[in-house]
Structures are given as structure tokens and as C-alpha cells.
Automatic annotation (TrEMBL):
Name of the protein this chain belongs to: Hydrogenase expression/formation protein HypE
Domain PurM-like C-terminal: 235-385
Family: Belongs to the HypE family.
PurM-like N-terminal domain location: 121-222
Lineage: Bacteria, Bacillati, Actinomycetota, Actinomycetes, Pseudonocardiales
Start-end of Basic and acidic residues biased regions: 38-50
Keywords: Plasmid
Record InterPro entries: HypE (IPR011854), PurM-like_C_dom (IPR010918), PurM-like_C_sf (IPR036676), PurM-like_N (IPR016188), PurM-like_N_sf (IPR036921)
Length: 409
């Protein structure tokens, strides 16, 4: 029996995947324990707070605690881009490598080296690894994803991408024809983005040790504009923009695995964002506070990063979110929220209110931005992301601990 799920979606059977992981259960237990402790032993003065204010105070207290990884082994949740990833980064990597550049935790490092001749230049530098499964999916493959992803991280720093490196970890027995297809895809993506792949490395591991192929790319770009983009720069009154429909890539990859008996007319949105971001910066200048590509964790994760870094509230309007009906239908079936589903060719921009119209017009003037929309505003309440629902209510949009869609990039 086939179930009609709306335009472009069919479902055979009624199987529903269970996404619960140990990390999710552990985080829920911690939050419950914290809430119980606060109820039994409230802080002095808390009796004068409303119930909502007490909840917000507990959230702020939990976020202020030093990150500590509790699991003894790495789980899939640690690579999902949510709370578990944030804890891993802060408790392990940031704690070991701490420096002023790294502490910003942006998509790329913005550097101002001084050369031996005394000339000072501004560069952006980033790196990323790609483990997407399957390697080939509608609209792209791991090759163009690896190029576009690193180009986009540079573009989100406000840089013009110049050079990439690429490292391949190949599994014994991997088909040479597939490798050639992936490399050709990378070459085409690099040419389209105007970058050169100038160095690389290849390793081969035993059969069964690498799931076919993993790729790492690093990139360098030049910062030609006198702007500093940062999540901490968001201010009350600013407007949140998105460059097009969200969730296409994550849903495409999930359905391409063929595990859910669902078919849908959808392709990945993987694309280089250097041109559309440059047009936005030209139009709105220093009114642009932040650019981010909405990859792992989707729009919701970016908004939480902004709220935490700038100590503001990000208030999203559900009715304004551009989501294709096919993505909505598949998300409802899978029990996930499109706000958390990854994109690979969409950017989020936070811009000053007096530049919002020109910024939105610049996005819509580019082919990748035809579906651009204003989706929210920045408010005063510290450290929260709120969604005004279509029913007139408001709910908190928190970071996820795990990821219902692992290995989508």
C-alpha cells in the first residue's frame, strides 16, 4: 500500500525510525536533575521570579557552566552540530588549542599576518572534512560538496576564495571509476567557484575501514572588504535573512539512502555562495553583521550560536520560513523539524534594519537567491531562540543534542 504524502512524496508502509541515542538520554537526565535541584533548593531571590523567569535563569546557568564531556566514547551525536558537538569542541579541542583566533569559533579564521617585507594582508583560512553517505546523491556528490563547502566557509568570512587543498582517505577496493567521477566533479566545482586546488594528500586503508572514501579540504581566501563578520556582532533590531528554501540537502541525502521507502522529487542545494555573498556585502556593506551557511544543524543551530555569542534573542516567524512542500512532507513523516535540517547552498545573514531591504534585494537578484526571505528579528532577551508559530504561539528553539540525519556532509 502506498501512502500519499503530498506533492512529490510517496511512502510504502508506516515504518518510523527511532533517532534516540545515549547522548540524548544523558542530556535529558542532566536537565531533569538540574531542574529538580533548582525546585528543591531555589537560589535566594528566585521566589520573586515568575515560573518562566526561573526556567530562563536555569537555562542561562546551564549554558554558563564549563563544558565537560561525560561520555567515555565518541557517539554519532558528537558529529551532529548540536549540543554534543559544542561540548566536544569546547571541552576537548578548544581547551587544548585555546587562542584568541580560535575562541571566536567562526566558520573560518580571519588572519592579519605581516609578511617579511612589512606588508600586512588579511586572509581567511578554513578546513572541513566530508563523510557524506551515500557518496552520490541527486544534485551532487561528495566531490562537489567538499569544494563548495570549503568555498562557502571562506565566503561566510567575507573572503574571496583563492586556493584549496584536498586530502583523500580511500578504502581498499574502492572503484577507480567512482574516484575519477568524484575528482572530475571536484574539478568542475573548483572551476565554477574560481578557485585552484593546489596541494593534496592520499591515504589508503584496509577494506572495511573507511566506508569507501572520505575527503578533507582546506581553503585560503583574501579579505578585500573592511568588514568583520561575527555572531557576536548581532544587535537588537537587526533582521535575519535566508537566501532560499531550507532543508533540501539533508532530506535529499536521507532519502537517497533508500532506507525509508520514500520517494520524492528533490535534489541537493549544494552550490558555491561566494558570488551571492559578495553581492550582499556590496549592497549592505558594514550593515551586514554575520554570514553563515546553514549546514549541520540547519537554521536553528546558527540562530542559537548568534543568540549565545551576542547575548540576544533571535525571534523567527514560522510563516516566513521558506520550506518546499516536499521537504515539509518528508520532515513530518520522519518526525523532524526543517529548521534543523542541513542546507549546502543557503546562507543566513543578520543585517542592520536600515540595510535589510537592500540586502534582501541583492540576494533575490542572484539565481541562488530567488527564494530569499526575511525570517526573523533580533530582540533584547539574552541567549534565546524563539519561534512565533503559525497558530499564534511561541516556542523555544533549542540546540539539539544529537542529529536525526547523520552524515549528510
Amino acid at each position: 500500500m502506498t501512502q500519499d504524502l503530498g506533492p512529490g512524496i510517496d511512502r510504502a508502509g508506516a515504518t518510523r525510525a527511532n533517532w534516540a541515542e545515549e547522548a540524548v538520554a544523558a542530556a535529558a537526565a542532566d536537565e531533569a536533575q538540574l531542574a529538580h535541584a533548582e525546585t528543591q533548593h531555589p537560589h535566594a531571590g528566585s521566589e520573586h521570579l515568575t515560573r518562566e523567569e526561573q526556567v530562563l535563569a536555569r537555562i542561562a546557568k546551564a549554558r554558563a557552566r564549563k563544558a565537560r564531556i561525560k561520555e567515555e566514547r565518541i557517539t554519532l551525536a558528537h558529529g551532529a552540530g548540536g549540543k554534543a558537538t559544542q561540548t566536544l569542541i569546547e571541552a576537548v579541542f578548544l581547551d587544548a588549542f585555546r587562542n584568541p583566533v580560535l575562541e571566536k569559533l567562526e566558520d573560518g579564521a580571519q588572519l592579519a599576518p605581516t609578511w617579511t617585507n612589512g606588508v600586512t594582508g588579511r586572509l581567511a583560512f578554513t578546513t572541513d572534512s566530508y563523510v557524506v553517505s551515500p557518496l552520490f546523491f541527486p544534485g551532487g556528490d561528495i566531490g562537489d560538496l567538499a569544494v563548495n563547502g570549503t568555498v562557502n566557509d571562506l565566503a561566510m568570512c567575507g573572503a574571496r576564495p583563492l586556493f584549496l587543498s584536498c586530502g583523500f582517505i580511500l578504502e581498499e577496493g574502492f572503484p577507480v571509476a567512482d574516484l575519477q567521477r568524484i575528482v572530475a566533479s571536484m574539478a568542475a566545482a573548483a572551476q565554477a567557484a574560481g578557485v585552484q586546488i593546489v596541494t593534496g594528500d592520499t591515504k589508503v586503508v584496509e577494506r572495511g575501514k573507511a566506508d569507501g572514501l572520505y575527503i578533507n579540504t582546506a581553503g585560503v581566501g583574501v579579505l578585500e572588504r573592511d568588514v568583520v563578520l561575527s555572531a557576536a556582532a548581532a544587535r537588537p533590531g537587526d533582521v535575519v535573512l535566508v537566501s532560499g528554501p531550507i532543508g533540501d540537502h539533508g532530506i535529499t541525502v536521507m532519502l537517497a539512502r533508500g532506507e525509508l521507502d520514500i520517494s520524492a522529487d528533490i535534489v541537493s542545494d549544494t552550490a558555491p555562495l561566494h558570488e551571492i555573498s559578495a553581492g550582499l556585502l556590496d549592497a549592505a556593506g558594514d550593515g551586514v553583521r554575520l554570514l553563515r551557511d546553514a549546514t549541520r544543524g540547519g537554521v536553528a543551530t546558527i540562530c542559537n550560536e548568534v543568540a549565545t555569542a551576542a547575548q540576544v534573542a533571535v525571534v523567527l516567524d514560522e510563516a516566513s520560513l521558506p520550506v518546499r512542500p516536499v521537504v515539509n512532507g518528508a520532515s513530518e513523516l520522519l518526525g523532524i523539524d526543517p529548521l534543523y535540517v542541513a542546507c549546502e547552498g543557503r546562507l543566513i545573514a543578520v543585517v542592520a534594519p536600515d540595510r535589510a531591504d537592500s540586502a534582501l534585494a541583492a540576494l533575490r537578484a542572484h539565481p541562488l537567491g530567488e527564494g530569499a526571505a526575511a525570517i526573523g528579528t533580533i530582540k533584547d532577551d539574552p541567549g534565546l531562540v524563539l519561534l512565533r508559530t503559525a497558530f499564534g504561539g511561541t516556542r523555544i528553539v533549542d540546540l539539539l543534542v544529537g542529529d536525526p540525519l547523520p552524515r549528510i556532509c
